[in-house]
Each structure stands twice: as C-alpha cells, then as structure tokens.
Q: What sequence folds into this?
C-alpha cells in the first residue's frame, strides 16, 4: 500500500482514470488499437491480483484464515512494487508475441503511467505544512484537553461517530492496535455526539479505549477538512501531518500504515 499525504480513496480513482486514458490513447493510436486495449486492461488486472496476493501473504496472520477478508479488495491492501512488476511483465509478454499492437500498447502504457504519476504527485501536494490543529476537546470525565499528547510520540487521530457503520466496523481493529503498538499514540475523537451516547456505545461493544475524547462542535473535522467518517490522520512526533485515510481499516492495512509511517516506533514496541 502506498502511503503519503494522500487520502487513500483517491488512489483507486487515479488508477481508474489512468487506465481509462490509456485505453483512449490505444484507440487513437490506430493499428492494433483493439488488441492493445485488451493488453492494457489484462496487465492492470494481473498487476492488481499479484499486488493483493503479495500484501495478503505479507500480513497473513492479520487475516486469521478468513478467505473472504483476503479477497476483499475494499480494504485497499496492496503491495505496489510486485504489482507493477507483474503488470509490466504481462504487457511485455503480450507485445513480444503480437508485433502488430506494439506501437499502440507502448503509447497507451506511457499515457497511463504519465497520468498516474502526475495525478498522484498533484494529489500529494498541499499538506506538507499542515500540523495538528490546536483545538479543545472534552474527555469522558468532562475535563477540557488539547488534541496534542505532548509526549514526543507519533499521533494517530481517528474521527468517528457511533452512527457510522464503517466506524463501528473498524473500532475493534483500532482498539487492538492501541494495545499492541504502544510506541504510537492513538486518539479516538468522537464527532458531534453526547457523552452518554459515546459511553453507551463503548460499553455495548465491549471496547477498552484510551485517549477517548468528545468533539461536540466537530472542531477537529472542520480544522482538517474532513467531510466523511471514519477519517484517520497520521502525525509525526512534532505534530506534522504525514497522511490521511478516509474509510475503514482492516487489521492488516492499519498495521501496514503504522509500519510504513512509523517504522522505528512500531519496531520498538515489539
């Protein structure tokens, strides 16, 4: 999985647009266009499958033998490099065997790669100077507190609500990660709900959460520009924003995010 200052759901959209542009480029290339379209699409499919299989193999214990979870691409768990290599080899194999589509396939591949690279770079700009917002929250005892932990550890901020189905689904995963990865602070910031509602939800779900806070006015969501939940923000030890994830995590993808963004903190906790 590629991590960076990019909201993860944007990545699949960029891939789809890049493939679409590659197909259009193949059609405009003329001779061998139809066969080139198929070669491009098949190469992308092979790349995605290999990328997914590599990721699942890497985090196999996290899937706990659940085949359906392994096949569920929605958690966006992919290893980029194996997928890119597999897709490129697939395309190379096709064009070596079918000379008539070489020109169209090369043009289409270059158009797709350029679009993907440019769009990813553009989507990743604009967050480098963002830092942890200075907002006041309320803990479960009614005490005002700041979002910052001030302990020098990296901070992960999860914005959630009990009415949000994906939030409810990922909460046990994040709660377990909070217990396991002690080198990283994980703050659960409820958006817009009362203390009673949050308390009832946590009790009913049997969750044990540290750093649980209330944000009744959605101050954090407004400060970071979050428009949907769950939104998870990753900050370094100085409070600088490293990455944003919109949507739920699986155990494997959250572990991958922590290992990618905070390798030293994660290894020290084990």
A:
């Amino acid at each position: 999985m590629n991590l960076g200052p990019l909201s993860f759901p944007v990545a699949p959209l960029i891939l789809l647009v890049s493939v679409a542009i590659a197909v259009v480029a193949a059609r405009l290339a003329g001779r061998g266009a139809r066969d080139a379209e198929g070669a491009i699409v098949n190469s992308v499919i092979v790349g995605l499958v290999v990328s997914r299989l590599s990721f699942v193999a890497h985090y196999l214990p996290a899937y706990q033998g659940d085949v359906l979870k392994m096949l569920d691409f929605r958690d966006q768990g992919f290893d980029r490099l194996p997928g890119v290599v597999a897709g490129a080899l697939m395309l190379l194999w096709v064009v070596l065997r079918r000379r008539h589509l070489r020109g169209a396939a090369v043009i289409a591949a270059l158009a797709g790669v350029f679009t993907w690279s440019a769009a990813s770079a553009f989507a990743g700009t604009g967050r480098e100077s963002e830092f942890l917002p200075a907002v006041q929250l309320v803990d479960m005892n009614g005490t005002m507190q700041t979002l910052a932990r001030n302990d020098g550890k990296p901070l992960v901020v999860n914005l959630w609500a009990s009415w949000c189905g994906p939030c409810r689904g990922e909460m046990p995963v994040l709660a377990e990660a909070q217990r396991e990865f002690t080198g990283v602070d994980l703050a659960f910031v409820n958006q817009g709900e009362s203390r009673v509602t949050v308390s009832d939800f946590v009790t009913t779900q049997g969750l044990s959460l540290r750093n649980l806070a209330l944000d009744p006015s959605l101050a954090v969501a407004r400060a970071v520009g979050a428009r949907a939940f769950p939104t998870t923000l990753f900050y370094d030890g100085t409070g600088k924003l490293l990455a944003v994830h919109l949507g739920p995590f699986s155990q494997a993808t959250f572990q991958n995010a922590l290992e990618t963004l905070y390798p030293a903190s994660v290894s020290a906790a084990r």
Q: What stands out?
A: The mean pLDDT is 85. The chain has two domains: 10-123, 136-268.
